[in-house]
Design brief:
Helix content of chain B: 40-55%
Region (Disordered) (chain B): 27-144
Distance between the termini of chain B: 30 Å
Mean pLDDT of chain B: 78
Distance between the termini of chain A: 33 Å
Radius of gyration of chain A: 20 Å
Structural class of chain B: alpha/beta
Order of helices and strands of chain B: HHHHHHHHHHHHHHEHEHEHEEEHEEEEH
Low-confidence stretches of chain B: 1-32, 59-103, 127-147, 177-182
Order of helices and strands of chain A: HHHHHEHEHEHEEEHEHHEEEH
Strand order of the largest sheet of chain A: 3-2-1-4-7-9-10
Family (chain B): Belongs to the eIF-2B alpha/beta/delta subunits family.
Largest sheet of chain B: 7 strands, mixed
GO biological process, one term (chain B): animal organ development
Oligomer: heterodimer
Helix content of chain A: 40-55%
Number of helices of chain A: 12
Strand order of the largest sheet of chain B: 3-2-1-4-7-9-10
Low-confidence stretches of chain A: none
Largest sheet of chain A: 7 strands, mixed
Strand content of chain A: 5-15%
Biased composition (Basic and acidic residues) (chain B): 29-39, 52-68, 101-123
Strand content of chain B: 5-15%
Number of strands of chain B: 10
Shape of chain B: globular
Number of strands of chain A: 10
Mean pLDDT of chain A: 87
GO molecular function, one term (chain B): translation initiation factor activity
């Protein structure tokens, strides 16, 4: 328990220290630190402790990315067999691999940004939803490329994350306009493309993102506008929702609500699921993928 | 595709007189060899013909067609005989043949060795083989990469081509192993066939394939005869049941097999199995799962080391078959149930169609795990398999509703999920299943109800099909005759010239209608089937 609390504190410190970091990266940093400080005697015990640690982190921050990042981290460090009979040697190998993994994923946002900004043409009007650091990076890259474009951001209630995104964009001198969530259908005919981030990419090729994304996807399909999703590869998660109800409750609500509230039906879910049929392309650090290719990549990652 | 057969008519008779070809006919690797050889022979013949008139043939055209042919040599096969006039693809295949390299792949060397052995053997037995010319005129091998195999149509979808039928009859006649009189009987088609499906066989249940078989059927093992009859009469039905019955029968066959002197078990046993397989496919066309099982068995047999004693080899083979059944069918269904139960939540209304052993197993398991759900069983004529599913589910205590498929759009607003079984999953993501499945998936999609297909990986098939016409099965048309109030209106349907009864067995569902495929490897989208096939091939 002591370790659990220290872990959570470390995690929170990471996020406070670097607000730009993806929550999954912060989680993985904390897990790596946990691995370094871990005192268990056997590999099995080590794995047990790691799974416990991941669960503790999920309780703190219930986003899909933390869960997927944690699972991928665990798989990555124990992927190949650890032949050394000595536990400390094994641990060193695992820590090495963990650092390698961390380095790889810290670079992934940059890779995605580089891939996607070429799809933004000069004079484009872009619609985005809520606040996504990856989308911000993409727009940053496009602006640095001397492209002229305007951005429409939805307000994204209940936490008004869209307004924060608008502020950040104004700092980059990008013309931005905040629209109501309800105005997505109204604005869709003006825009050329829609770019959103993702909290998690599921096996079917669909995405889980802030509530309101599904609506935006349906509208863009109706207007035949391309709907692009930008996500790093550590967000790939082994879920397969069939519809909105099929997304597990532990992702739908924030961690505090899950702990305190009795009847979840009275609460508003924070995320929704966008099926792959509405998504045109996914930009990841593994490349530009169609939704059906996501499953192939997942099979490669996990099998 | 018809083009290649057209050429076969006027060209060399590739009637597979040679015994090794019979063995290789169903062996996929062998299929490519024989097709390749036939293709090469064809090219040679054409080359002879062309060299006579072709002195002025534009050489530049050849060169450019050669370049074009290398990436797309399947073009010659897809042109019908009517378009034979187009010399370009002909040039292409010839110039490609002319560009043959002398390098031979291992498989071709093996085949040649076998051919030589067999020609020696057959000449010893004094049989007249027209195939000797094919042995002697074996052209140099073209590397597989340069010349991808031109796919020929399997014979069971060429029923309206008289040449193919003649070839099949000859092949069945020749499937004798040192016996003169007994042979695999050729079953004749029954009744008028609808023109769109005239390329498929249509047999009547009243004329079993064993009518012409002589007693004792020394070529065909009696348990195989029994199995064939069980298939043709519909006593054993359902993809899993047929495969398991087939594997058990093969175990029996292997048990009773004894290696003749001067023969190797690994080669001779495969030869022995070929007439059995022909007989079974005459009784009822093989399913994709049976095809995969047969491929596996043949591979296992040919991998038996030659120094292995007979008893040991037989024991090994039986163990292999047992483990195949256990892993691919029984354990797979356990794994699939585990994944599927995650998708069944309390309060669900689940729609199932027909009788799929896998789906029934899943529902029974979910019920045991105390999930609260009810089931709607959809059924259709003439098989009315849904009744069997209904019986099994009700026996378990599951609340069921029973409707016919015509009431589908009435019942769908109540449904929360659709569970479907599959006969085979094709390489392009299409699902081949009992006729009516595609309809259910379509209407479910229109109502936004998720459609889940449950299928074991051993039913994954390398074939690609986009419609239900090109390869299907026609059941006995007399099944459609129904007697109500003592009157059967269709009784004399044969007398009405313009009337055809069509009793289709399978149909093909596109992947857009299927939301999820549950396999023993996990839950995958329908478009990821080729990835699984690739991973499986790498494993093997």
């Amino acid at each position: 328990l002591e370790d659990g609390r220290k872990l959570v504190e470390y995690f929170r410190a990471q996020i406070r220290g670097d607000p730009d970091v993806a929550s999954a990266v912060a989680a993985i940093r904390s897990l790596l630190e946990f691995l370094r400080r871990d005192q268990s005697e056997t590999i099995l015990g080590l794995r047990e402790n790691m799974t416990q640690a991941i669960r503790r982190l999920e309780e703190t921050d219930s986003s899909v990315a933390v869960s997927s990042g944690g699972e991928l981290f665990l798989r990555f460090i124990s992927l190949t067999s650890l032949e050394h009979p000595d536990l400390s040697q094994c641990k060193n190998v695992m820590i090495e691999r963990g650092e390698l993994f961390l380095k790889k994923i810290s670079l992934s946002r940059g890779k995605v940004g580089k891939l996607c900004h070429t799809f933004i043409k000069d004079g484009a009007k872009i619609l985005t939803h809520s606040s996504s650091r990856v989308v911000l990076k993409v727009l940053e890259n496009a602006a640095a490329d001397n492209k002229r474009f305007t951005v429409y951001v939805t307000e994204s209630q209940p936490d008004s994350a869209g307004k924060r995104m608008a502020q950040k964009l104004r700092k980059l001198n990008i013309p931005v306009m905040v629209v109501l969530d309800a105005a997505v259908g109204y604005i869709m005919e003006k825009v050329d493309l829609v770019i959103v981030g993702a909290e998690g990419v599921v096996e079917s090729g669909g995405v889980i993102n802030k509530i309101g994304t599904y609506q935006m996807a349906v509208c863009s399909k109706a207007h035949n506008k391309p709907f692009y999703v930008v996500a790093e590869s550590f967000k790939f998660v082994r879920l397969y929702p069939l519809n909105q109800q099929d997304v597990p409750d532990r992702f739908k609500y924030t961690a505090d609500i899950l702990k305190t509230v009795k009847d979840l039906n009275q609460e508003h879910p924070m995320i929704d699921y966008t099926p792959p049929s509405l998504i045109t392309l996914l930009f990841t650090d593994l490349g530009v993928l169609t939704p059906s290719a996501v499953s192939d990549e997942l099979i490669k990652l996990y099998l | 595709m018809a083009d290649s057969d057209g050429r076969q008519v006027d060209g060399v008779n590739h009637a597979t007189g040679k015994i090794y070809r019979l063995k290789l006919f169903f062996n996929n690797e062998g299929k490519e060899l024989t097709k390749e050889e036939k293709q090469r022979l064809r090219k040679e013949k054409k080359q002879h013909k062309k060299n006579k008139k072709d002195d002025k043939g534009p050489p530049e055209k050849e060169k450019e067609k050669e370049k074009a042919s290398v990436p797309a040599p399947s073009k010659p096969a897809t042109q019908s005989p009517a378009h034979k006039a187009a010399p370009a693809p002909v040039h292409a295949s010839e110039s490609a043949a002319a560009a043959e390299k002398p390098a031979k792949s291992k498989a071709e060397l093996r085949a040649e060795r076998r051919a030589r052995q067999d020609s020696e053997r057959t000449s010893k037995h004094g049989k007249k083989e027209g195939g000797q010319q094919s042995a002697s005129s074996k052209p140099k091998a073209t590397p597989n990469e340069l010349q991808p195999v031109v796919k020929r149509l399997p014979e069971h979808v060429q029923v309206d081509d008289p040449a193919a039928l003649k070839k099949l009859a000859k092949k069945l006649e020749r499937q004798q192993v040192r016996q003169i009189h007994s042979h695999v009987p050729l079953r004749s088609d029954y009744g008028y066939k609808v023109s769109l499906f005239s390329h498929l066989h249509q047999y009547s249940r009243k004329s079993p394939p064993t009518l012409q078989i002589s007693i004792p059927a020394t070529v065909i093992h009696p348990s195989i005869v029994r199995l064939g009859l069980q298939y043709s009469q519909g006593i054993i039905a359902g993809s899993n049941a047929r495969s398991v019955a087939l594997l058990h029968t093969f175990k029996q066959v292997i048990q009773d097999y004894s290696t003749p002197p001067n023969e190797e078990l690994s080669r001779d046993l495969v030869n022995k199995l070929s007439p059995y397989i022909s007989f079974l496919s005459q009784c009822r066309p093989l399913s994709a799962s049976m095809g995969n099982a047969i491929k596996y068995i043949k591979k296992e047999i040919s991998n038996i080391p030659s120094q292995c004693k007979e008893e040991e080899a037989k024991g090994k083979l039986q163990a292999c078959i047992d483990s195949y059944i256990n892993e691919k069918i029984i354990l797979a269904s356990e794994a699939i149930s585990k994944y599927a139960i995650e998708k069944i939540s309390d309060g669900d209304v689940i729609l199932v169609y027909g009788c799929s052993s896998l789906v029934n197993h899943i529902l029974c398991k979910a019920f045991e795990k105390q999930r609260k759900f009810r089931v709607i069983v959809v059924d259709s004529r003439p098989r009315l398999e849904g009744r069997e599913a209904l019986r099994r589910l009700v026996k378990k205590g599951i609340r069921c509703t029973y409707v016919l498929i015509s009431a589908l759009s009435y019942i769908l607003p109540e449904v929360s999920k659709v569970f479907l079984g599959a006969h085979a999953l094709l390489a392009n993501g299409y699902v081949m299943s009992r006729v009516g499945t595609s309809q259910i998936a379509l209407v479910a999609k229109a109502y936004n109800v998720p459609v889940l297909v449950c299928c074991e990986t051993y039913k994954f098939c390398e074939r690609v099909q986009t419609d239900s016409f090109v390869s299907n099965e026609l059941d006995d048309p007399d099944d459609l005759i129904v007697t109500r109030n003592g009157k059967s209106h269709l009784e004399n349907w044969q007398t009405v010239k313009s009337l055809g009864l069509l009793n289709l067995v399978y149909d093909v569902t596109p992947p857009d209608f299927v939301d999820l495929v549950i396999t023993d490897l996990g839950m995958i989208p329908c478009t990821s089937v080729p990835v699984v096939l690739r991973v499986k091939n790498v494993d093997q």
